[in-house]
Amino acid sequence: MKKNLKAIIQIFIMIAAVFTLTTVFSNSAAAADTSLQRVKERGELIMVTSPDYPPYEFQVNKNGKDKIVGMDIDVAKKVAKDLHVKLVIKSMNFDSLLVAIQTGKADMAIGGINPTAARRQSVDFSKIYYSGGQSFLINSSDVNKYKSAKNLKGATIGAQTGTLQYGLAKKKIPNSTVKGMDKSTDLVLALKTHKIDALGIEKPSAEAYVKNDPSLKMISSGYHLNKNEIGAAIAFKKGSGSLVAAVNKSIDQIKKQNLTEQYLAGAGKYMKVNTVNTSMFHYWKYFAKGVEYTILISVVSTFFGVLIGVILALMRFSKQKWLRGLAISYTEFIRGTPLMVQVLFVYFGIGVVVNIPALISGMIAVSLNSGAYVAEIIRGGINSVAKGQTEAAASLGLSKGDLMRFVILPQAFKNIWPALGNEFISLIKESSIVSIIGVTDLIYQLNIVRADTYRGVMPIFVAMLLYFVMTFALTRVLNHFEGKMKHAG
To answer: Which parts pass through the membrane (predicted)?
Structure first.
């Protein structure tokens, strides 16, 4: 037990070392401000956003092709044009945007981000380029009940996690219960299904939903706020003074020429394109792409998960105590931490030292997680093989390697096939967690379709059917091979 504890402590020391290297790397990068120089030398301005917040940023499906559009995207294009570089857009959850720039995944983050005092402690901000004001969305059936924000006292208020609206609802609405969610699309669905009474949201976004969904109405927030914290600004990594200064020049031009009104008008036209045809068949390419990535992640993670699992299981039976301790520590640590945290750590934590793309990061995290569970399944299978098999193989003069390869493992896999099948099926569903770092799997595409079409339930139903088809097909395949194994036995 003491030796296992020692091995676990060693793993924690290694993790602490990674964080230390990350901190040193980040501090050394911030020591000299080369933010603008790096962008120009690269010829690309890398921007992260969460494209589920019309009219600021959202995806449009036109003539079978999809792209990210919106007022914020036009602002970013203006900045990139003035810097004479190409704009590269990366998508991820809103609550990961600031982490992305802090860890060097992008040069700037845009997404209707309010430059609050708390956020300014962690990142740099440009000047505010647009102030749309704060509003609440309510159901049309509640217009007589909630005539103004004053009537929301004691109500259940929804707001996107990590936003200004979430904090304001807690501070400004007396006796209210505030519920936070990662996606604005989830919040709108919660509102329409009466899980919440009102939704705190930026005024332009509220207007966009009201125009496209007659079941929703908008009321003013009545907030009196610090003008330096309300409105949208662009976020940058701390110490990016030269890049911030260059971007502020573009924002000065945007304000002088009142370009945000033009950008909003353009976003409105795109939103009309989305609502012309909101059938799920019209968005079949979105779902098809999501299925493609889900299958890819599942297949790759299954292969490496089994490989890691076999290695860990064999390490558990090694005579080398340090190998056994390492395998036990790894398995316990991985099984004791959420997959979501592991995905974030691989992408943002390790990614600071080695810049790993989102898709590969997701595959690595899911593979490492699956390997720990597969290892225990295989270990159980090896233990289930009768000792007489080992004795018979030894009497035939088989080496330990051949014994494991030709006698133990084949019988073990036969015994554990149903359990492995369950792990593979679970992997298809659990891989959906990679959407939080912007991997375009089925869940990611589902949220995009919901944001584009203003339909909350139908995209979810389609995704459920697609997951069922994938898992049912895999179940049939696994059962086929299980039957062949039984027949062979």
So the answer is: 295-318, 339-360, 456-478
Name the burial class of residue 354, with classes exposed (0-12), middle (13-18) and buried (19+) by CB atoms within 10 angstroms of its CB: exposed
pLDDT of residue 243: 97
Amino acid at 93: N
Domain 33-127+231-276 and domain 134-220, same fold? Reply is yes
pLDDT at 489 over 50: yes
Instruction: Please state, for a pLDDT cut of 70, what percent of the chain lies above it.
Output: 90
- Tell me the two tokens of residue 296: 């890819």
Q: Are 254 and 232 in contact (CB under 8 A)?
A: no
How many CB atoms are located within 10 Å of the residue 202 CB? 28
Average pLDDT in the 432-456 region? Answer: 86
CATH of domain 282-488: 1.10.3720.10
CATH numeric code, 33-127+231-276: 3.40.190.10
User: Do β-strands 57-62 and 52-53 pair in parallel, antiparallel, or remain unpaired?
Assistant: antiparallel
- pTM confidence score: 0.77
